[in-house]
Amino acid sequence: MSLLEIKNLTVAFDTSAGLFKAVDGIDISVERREVLAIVGESGSGKSVAMLACMGLLPKTATVTADVMRFDGRDLLTMSDAERRKIIGKDIAMIFQEPIASLNPCFTVGFQIAEVLEKHLGLSGRAAHARSVELLNQVGIRDAEDKLKAFPHQMSGGQCQRVMIAMAIACNPTLLIADEPTTALDVTIQKQILDLLVTLQEKTGMGLIMITHDMGVVAETADRVVVQYKGHKMEEADVLSLFENPQSNYTRALLSALPENAVGDRLPTVSDMLFEAAPGVR
């Protein structure tokens, strides 16, 4: 049994222009001890699919699926109260833009302790000790002092590590990392990716990496799902995807990598899809 199994997921939003399908009939699964990359351009429905799984979309969204199951539990029939018990504990997510995701009005220590109290019932000294342990685990120096800091007093890389600490606080069985290296410099990107993979290998959790960066895919993933405009274009193990992509869209993504630049011009995904017309697939 897969840790997470989703079949025929559709997410639609009611807009002034009519019903817009952000995700249209995709299947996704991830196993324990596996790193699954979901890759595609911005707007391809990667984040929306995972937010739908976690029940974090606004009420204006219509979510349907044939199957949406986590660790044997049916997410479709689960009540909001039951879902809240597992979100943040058994399934955790690292959101985009860590500085924007952390509350600027509260210290880092308060925000980590809130997670520990909500899901594990820890408070006082126990919560403080676990918070220090978590910051040390994600490589933040002077953990005691950093617990007293507000997000704006920390760098982007440190805030991302705090987000990871909050996500792993309850030892989740599934961690979803949504563009975890966006807006970080190359050195910090490498450190964050290494940290996530190390944590995944150490704990045996399933890891879903949402990204548009094929370099991140090559470096971290076991298996890859390629999305385009809400549709799943291709699914393969990472070696097969890079060596023998099956869809025109995947070939376009790979052809747009910086190393494929001709002179001072880099091929774009749109260029490659135009050449592959009439069908995107």
Automatic annotation (TrEMBL):
GO terms, molecular function: ATP binding; ATP hydrolysis activity
Indicate how the chain sits in the lipid bilayer: Peripheral membrane protein
Q: Name one GO cellular component term.
A: plasma membrane
Q: Which residues form the ABC transporter domain?
A: 4-254
Keywords from the named record: ATP-binding, Cell membrane, Membrane, Nucleotide-binding, Transport
GO aspect biological process, one term: transmembrane transport
The answer to whether the entry has keyword Transport is yes
Top-level taxon in the UniProt lineage:
Bacteria
Subcellular location(s) per record: Cell inner membrane
In terms of Pfam families, this protein maps to: ABC_tran
For this protein, the record's PROSITE patterns field holds: ABC_TRANSPORTER_1, ABC_TRANSPORTER_2
Kindly give the InterPro entries that the UniProt entry links to this protein.
Answer: AAA+_ATPase, ABC_Ni/Peptide_Import, ABC_transporter-like_ATP-bd, ABC_transporter-like_CS, P-loop_NTPase
Q: Which SUPFAM superfamilies match?
A: P-loop containing nucleoside triphosphate hydrolases (SSF52540)
| Annotated PANTHER family | DIPEPTIDE TRANSPORT ATP-BINDING PROTEIN DPPD (PTHR43297:SF2), OLIGOPEPTIDE TRANSPORT ATP-BINDING PROTEIN APPD (PTHR43297)
Similarity comment text for this entry = Belongs to the ABC transporter superfamily.
For this entry, the protein name equals Dipeptide transport system ATP-binding protein
